[in-house]
Amino acid sequence: MTATFEDPNVSPWERKEWIKKQRLQLLEQRVNIKAQAFDLEKQQFKWSRYCSKKDKEFERSRLLNERTTLEIRQSALQLRQKQLEMDKIFEFKSVVIFCKSLGYTCLILFANEGFLH
């Protein structure tokens, strides 16, 4: 670069042309850098959108999993409740059979406890 300016054989017009050429090269470099920056921004935007979509899918799956777990627990509790009810009914029937042998004196006691509806 300094050789062009220091060379006494180079005319002022050639110097101006050389400067124009250098300016044009720098302008092209700037445009290329801006194009690369734009491409990177575009990539980042696409990646952000993709991540956001995947985060929503993950959250949806997590909530569905939690809901399923709660439904399973609810079913287990309902089953346990039914088992307890069946145990009470079996117990009640056993007591009724026993009370029949005693002349129904125990039946009134259980009616007050809510076994008879």
Automatic annotation (TrEMBL):
This is TRANSCRIPTION FACTOR TRIHELIX FAMILY-RELATED.
